[in-house]
Amino acid sequence: MHLIQVDSVQRWMEDLKLMTDCECMCILQSKPISIEKDEQNELILSSQYNTCDNLQLLLKRAWIISTELTRIAQKLEKNRWQRVHSMTVRVNCHVRSMMNECNTFSRSSSEEMHQLEKLLVDKCSEFTAFTERCLQTEDEEVLKSMKSCVNETLTTVAQYFGQLIELVLTQEAQNLLRQIELSGSLYVTESAVSSLFSLAQEGAHLCRIIAQEGGVVALFKICRQDCFRCLYPQTLRTLASICCVEEGMHQLEKVDGILCLADILTDTSHSEATHAEAAAVIAQITSPHLTFTQHLSSFLENMEEIVTALVKLCQEASSGEVFLLASAALANITFFDTMACEILLQLNAVKILLAACSDKHIVDTPYSRDQVVTILANMSVLDQCASEIIQGNGVQLLMEMLFEKSSSGNPAEAAACERVQQKSAVTLARLSRDPEVAEAAVKLSCIPRLIKLCRSPTERNNSDSVLVACLAALRRLAVMSPDGLEDSDFQQLVKPRLVDSFLLCTNMEESFV
């Protein structure tokens, strides 16, 4: 969950209310405040805001319980029985609190959920009783025999807890999808899609649940109705999140989602925001990091019109964010199928991308430059690409990319800068088989820059992949222009085997103090 990736003090402050409730209301918290049903509902509902808030509260509580169960296992391993018992009491309370919270915002609870709740409560009570008995004995043999029972009970509690959370989240996804399916109201549909998006942000497991319950089908149904046009951007953004899992991709294929996305991208009556979010879905489903894209057979049928629409979106992008989404989709497609590179050449994509790079308002981050240089690197395998690069002053751009540095020190940005350096070196190496490109690169002093990247680990952020790419580019340029290197550089960086030069350069990082 993304909850873990926040400042620890902020995390503690958010959890403080839950933790103090747990300590102070250990018994009363699991009992109704009022006998009158209406009064109880009125009181509880007044403290709840909406489905999204309720889910966040549930997930926070689930995170706390999961963390506590892990810590109990650790303390149990060290035979810290006093701590094990106190933490068991706390987990018991948290479980009861979570059930109360579930019951306040769940409109209907199934028989299966009631059974799971009873099993979990009974097992938690048994768990607490076990650990309390362990406190009352000091006999090592007795404790050793009881420890296995406690371990077994802990495992069962964790199992029941996991099943209950799975069931609650599944039912919540079903409720939201039922709202989308049955409601013709713009407001209700918008609210349900928003809650579904929040649910999808909690990780791949939640996306899997949504996909299995028919979330992709329901969302594409919205994207096929003109009356919901204003919801297209939000709906497509949710689809992009869900399609990070294989189940989402299979559902997309079943409902002809590619054809729907192609129709949206090529329909000029849609807003730029809608086109950008459709591009984001394309970028997601064609990601080279996914291993389950092979079944997207319908993508090839619509690839030419999708690529054409994406190039147009890059050319007309009004902001850096729109350009980033469109270029990311194009970059992924060039990995997905080599025919895409030929289509891009026919559409003068090189000229369009190079022109965009000269506009600092459009290509304004290393992430955008990463997408552009990825496209150029994949296109550079085509012989015709060299002349396009020369005409668009692309060698100059590649040279500038060799100087890419992170200004913020952010790890993600630093990694993007490394990719830009690596891919620009790869592109130079591939294009330098053309004498005209090699000559232009030499004139722009690419050789000294490549040598510095090889010899200075800090210039390349200690990246081995950048080093290998720079060595390859340097060797290609050295063949075309051997006079551009000093003898020591030639002897160390060009003449030996690539692996030997690599080892020489990486050993420069070592300290022998």
TrEMBL record:
Residues 4-48 form the Protein inscuteable homologue LGN-binding domain. Gene3D superfamilies: Inscuteable LGN-binding domain, Leucine-rich Repeat Variant. It comes from the Eukaryota. GO terms for biological process: apical protein localization; asymmetric cell division; establishment of mitotic spindle orientation; regulation of asymmetric cell division. Pfam families: Insc_C (PF19427), INSC_LBD (PF16748). Residues 61-513 form the Protein inscuteable homologue C-terminal domain. InterPro entries: ARM-like, ARM-type_fold, Armadillo, Insc_C, INSC_LBD, INSC_LBD_sf, Inscuteable. GO terms for cellular component: apical cortex. CDD domains: INSC_LBD (cd21966). GO terms for molecular function: cytoskeletal anchor activity. This is INSC protein. It comes from Leiothrix lutea (Red-billed leiothrix).
